[in-house]
Amino acid sequence: MLKELQMGLRACYMLASRVWTCICFLLRKQVRANRQNQPISCLLASINLCSLNLQCSVKIIPNLLNEWKLKVVQHQPVKYELFPLSPLSRHRLSIVKRKVLVLDLDETLIHSHHDSNSRQLIKPGTPHDFVLKVVIERNPVRFLVHKRPHVDFFLDIVSQWYELVVFTASMEIYGAGVADKLDNNRGILKRRFYRQHCTPDLGTYTKDLTAVTTDLTSIFILDNSPGAYRSYPDNAIPIKSWFSDPMDTALLNLLPVLDALRFTQDVRSVLSRNLHLHKIW
């Protein structure tokens, strides 16, 4: 794609050079015509034609460049390759406890909105990944759910490293349906906690990690809302809220950190150094 862009720029330069040469030639011809007192109406028409071609080129070239740029962005590959562990790494992993990764749902792994929601953050017409139909207070509600980019790959990888637990402040009837879709019969999201397991706090909900396990050396949460883990800042990894960006790579960017964190004796020895990343509520 870069080679095509270079060829396009070279062609544009050659076209501009030829147009300028043509204009200079016609101007010289005009001077000679003036000397001979000849009419120059044809000459002016030729100059206008050259100017029109140049203007068209100026308008078309940026459009072509924008189109090439768009193609480059859309086709940029994002890869994360896994390699076999060395004997030393396998031994190290065998002597530490398997850890628990707690996962939030909304704006962390997915974003959803329902039909009656007038404040949709998704651009109209954006295709959803699945539809979740539930009944809330005897009213049928249809949620359109969008999965964060690379979430399926992310779950497939981290499920090999950690015990995964869903902990959402959403109602169970909704959270269970979303978790089922993300699990996709893989059996990797068996343990789940919902709104009834949260603690109401100043109009929001906080999540008590000791409800999952009392061993805080081996548990941490991935959540876009710092208020949800305000009691456990040393056991949390913040992530930017996701709503609609199709180029988001936040989940992939976390894989190297999560790969290394499973080898530690105490996750807090690492995560306590990232307190500056958490927003203050």
UniProtKB/TrEMBL annotation:
A GO term for molecular function: protein serine/threonine phosphatase activity
Keyword annotations from UniProtKB, A to Z: Hydrolase, Membrane, Protein phosphatase, Transmembrane, Transmembrane helix
Family: Belongs to the Dullard family.
Localization per record: Membrane
Species in which this protein is naturally found: Cimex lectularius
Family annotation (PROSITE patterns): FCP1 (PS50969)
FCP1 homology domain ranges (all copies): 94-261
Catalytic reaction list: O-phospho-L-threonyl-[protein] + H2O = L-threonyl-[protein] + phosphate; O-phospho-L-seryl-[protein] + H2O = L-seryl-[protein] + phosphate
Membrane topology value: Single-pass membrane protein
InterPro entries given in the database record: Dullard_phosphatase, FCP1_dom, HAD-like_sf, HAD_sf, TIM50
GO biological process: membrane biogenesis; nuclear membrane organization
GO cellular component, as recorded: membrane
Task performed by this protein: Serine/threonine protein phosphatase that may dephosphorylate and activate lipin-like phosphatases. Lipins are phosphatidate phosphatases that catalyze the conversion of phosphatidic acid to diacylglycerol and control the metabolism of fatty acids at different levels. May indirectly modulate the lipid composition of nuclear and/or endoplasmic reticulum membranes and be required for proper nuclear membrane morphology and/or dynamics. May also indirectly regulate the production of lipid droplets and triacylglycerol.
Major subcellular location class: membrane
NCBIfam families noted in UniProt: HIF-SF_euk (TIGR02251)
EC numbers for this chain: 3.1.3.16
Protein name: CTD nuclear envelope phosphatase 1 homolog
